Amino acid sequence: MSSMSRRHLMFAATGIAAIAAAPRLVFAQAAAPAPAAAAPTGPFTLPPLAYPTNAFEPHIDAKTMEIHHDRHHAAYVTNMNNVAKTNPQLGTAKIEDVLGNLNALDDSIKFTVRNNLGGHANHTMFWEIMGPNGGKPEGEVLAAIDRDLGGLEKFQNDFNAAGGRQFGSGWVFVTVSKDGKLAIETRPNQDNPMMDGKRALMGNDVWEHAYYLNYQNRRADYLKAWWNTVNWAKIAERYAAAKAGTLGV
Question: Broadest EC class (predicted)?
């Protein structure tokens, strides 16, 4: 065989190897996870976290916080901005007024607003009442817990039990009336006490996306650990606002 023929064979083999490798390279690139989509411009915005995503480790891991805030909550904001394009009144009304009057909405958007504006309201409250080094309940909040919920230990046990009993996805809340009375209530999916004319003092998310990376099916363990993330100073502010009639989301 001539040297020219051997060179041709070598080039051909090299070319075949490169072609064979190319699809694997394309597949590897395609399999990379896409970044979270940015919410479209509109009246609804994703509130930034007031703390780093790893602030609550080991109780809640940074990856769960990142996915929960940047993807799940962001999706509710995106969906509300999309529906507001053809229903601009949603972006100018107070969230509590919209959620408190869902039956006034057109049937074509009622389900979307219930789920996505409810999710936006719930999560906005959720990030607000959490914070590292959250302390302990004091003052009027502690007095209300003692008066209405049987003391801090009983309250936490009852709250955890209610969250554990919530079937499927949902939330466990502490509702607060205008006279400061507290009660433990649960809601399915992204329903919010505002839909019943009430206000949430605080609440915990028991959707699996809130805990599954660390806790899998051990919701009870997550509920217990979550108390390490509660910012009682912020809850005291919300309690004062509720008694003044100014508590919104």
Answer: oxidoreductase
CA distances to 32, 43, 48, 67, 70 from 35, in Å:
9, 23, 17, 11, 10
**Are 80 and 120 within 8 A, CB to CB?**
yes
User: Does 38 fall in a domain?
Assistant: no
Q: Residues at the annotated binding site?
A: 68, 123, 205, 209
The tens place of each residue's pLDDT in the chain, 249 residues long, gives 444 444 444 434 444 343 334 333 332 333 333 444 454 579 999 999 999 999 999 999 999 999 999 999 999 999 999 999 999 999 999 999 999 999 999 999 999 999 999 999 999 999 999 999 889 999 999 999 999 999 999 999 999 999 999 999 999 999 999 999 999 999 999 999 999 999 999 999 999 999 999 999 999 999 999 999 999 999 999 999 999 999 999
User: Does the global pTM surpass 0.90?
Assistant: no
Q: Is residue 187 part of a domain?
A: yes
- Taking alpha carbons only, the member of 185, 182, 105 closest to residue 151 is 182
Show the tokens assigned to 109.
Answer: 């958007």
Give just the sign of the alpha carbon dihedral 42, 105, 198, 119.
negative
Domain, as residue range, for 101: 61-249
> Does residue 63 sit in helix, strand or coil?
helix
Q: How far apart are the first and last CA of the chain?
A: 83
Annotated binding-site positions for Mn(2+): 68, 123, 205, 209
Asked if 114 contacts 187 with a C-beta cutoff of 8 angstroms, the reply is no
